[in-house]
Amino acid sequence: MEERVLGRTGRIVSPIGLxxxxxxxxxxxxxxxxxxxxxxxxxxxxxxxxxxxxxxxDGRSEQTIGAWLAAHPDAxxxxxxxxxRRVPQVPENxxxxxxxxxxxxxxxxxxxxxxxxxQLHCPPTPVxxxxxxxxxxxxxVEEGVMRSYGxxxxxxxxxxxxxxxxxxxxxxxxxxxxxLKPQEEVFPAAREAGVGIIVRVPxxxxxxxxxxxxxxxxxxRDHRSYNRDGSAFDVGETFSGxxxxxxxxxxxxxxxxxxxxxxxxxxxxxxxVSQPGVTTAIPGARNAAQxxxxxxxxxxxxxxxxxLDAGVQRIYDAYFREAVHPRW
Length: 328
Fold this sequence. Notes:
Layout: E1 4-5, E2 12-13, E3 18-19, H1 32-44, E4 49-51, H2 60-71, E5 78-83, H3 96-110, E6 115-121, H4 131-142, E7 146-152, H5 156-163, E8 168-174, H6 186-193, E9 196-200, H7 223-226, H8 244-255, H9 264-273, E10 280-281, H10 288-296, H11 306-319, H12 321-324
Parallel strand pairs: 3-4, 4-5, 5-6, 6-7, 7-8, 8-9, 9-10
Antiparallel strand pairs: 1-2
């Protein structure tokens, strides 16, 4: 698989990474054996970037990765975790003391003395403008608690504020054919600054897998059941914030654009990682077959034509721009 430099971290990663929210919680149950097989399949397929968070399964995702790393010490995987969602979301909780506590826990979970990359986990907007927060993060880098830090954001304005900070190595943001706004300013600014872009929710919570219909029902523990109205966290994290049924109609249009031999998910992923400024995308996987299929998309970017670009723009304008573009 192609290799890319992850922004100011200087680390080499794959254009298709692995998101591991599914291995923790909020997507229904994934057993320990299945979780280990997902990590195995991803690594065997050339994936060199795992993304997790301290709240995924209350540490279960980190612990699963930590156990896997212990068994595969020479795998060459960069692991990014996230912190900040274990407390009420007020700026006052983003302190050096809290960072130390959260990162000590993540280091134990992951079995790492020094964390590769730590991201603020979609904090309140004022946090991005607070020098004390970033001074604390700089101090933790100097102390060897982590090698680099970045941010995971909800809004493009937050991303632009973060990119302007010299210590921010990466920005994680939602981007897919149903959420195009980051292309306008975020990606060009990141490229100019040398900041890595990590794309999350690349398949719109599975909508762009092409496997769902109006009769699909999700487990009650799955955020695609309980967060469609944004009652648990930002609604943009669930189906990219688009209406499920409208999304199904848009997927049907997207499928008309697919190059021969590519699945809906592979075409979406290949299109995402071919966009200038994108470093890596982090689709999740519930089983080994999904992990392998997602990884295979990395080699498909060269098979995409200009018709797909034009079609994505047309679908976005018709179905989503009015509702989605101003919001995030």
